[in-house]
Automatic annotation (TrEMBL):
InterPro entries: MnmM_MeTrfase, SAM-dependent_MTases_sf
Natural source organism: Juglans regia
Gene3D superfamilies in the record: Vaccinia Virus protein VP39
Domain of life according to the entry: Eukaryota
Pfam families noted in UniProt: rRNA_methylase (PF06962)
Protein name: Uncharacterized protein
Length: 116
């Protein structure tokens, strides 16, 4: 199962449209949710075998640079990811920095990862 979290509804709709245009049977294994990534632990079943949690942080390239990932929610999401991912699993971070506060977000993410 793949879970996707988006707080910007327009982006969620576009992702849903792309997913629905896919002719593959696996699209039923994808759940796109209009909630913050910090809610991860409330959505993913407790006994799920999660092998990867991937974060795409910052802002949407080509989108509104005022809508950015918040360090506070990222910390909560990373904590939830740590508790959710199975032993030997991976947590991946991709951080876009081309917006005000982008470098601070990277530094915060690095400190958070060290703490997690």
């Amino acid at each position: 199962m793949v879970y996707g979290f988006k707080v910007v509804f327009v982006r969620l709709e576009k992702s849903m449209q792309l997913l629905m245009s896919c002719k593959c049977m696996q699209r039923d294994l994808v759940k796109l949710l209009p909630i913050c990534h910090s809610e991860l632990d409330k959505v993913v079943p407790e006994k799920a075998s999660v092998r990867l949690v991937a974060f795409n942080l910052g802002f949407l390239p080509g989108g509104d640079k005022a809508i950015i990932t918040k360090p506070e929610t990222t910390l909560l999401a990373l904590e939830a990811a740590k508790e959710t991912v199975m032993p030997g699993g991976l947590i991946s971070l991709v951080v876009y920095v081309g917006h005000p506060g982008g470098c601070a977000l990277v530094l915060h993410a690095m400190k958070t990862v060290e703490a997690v």
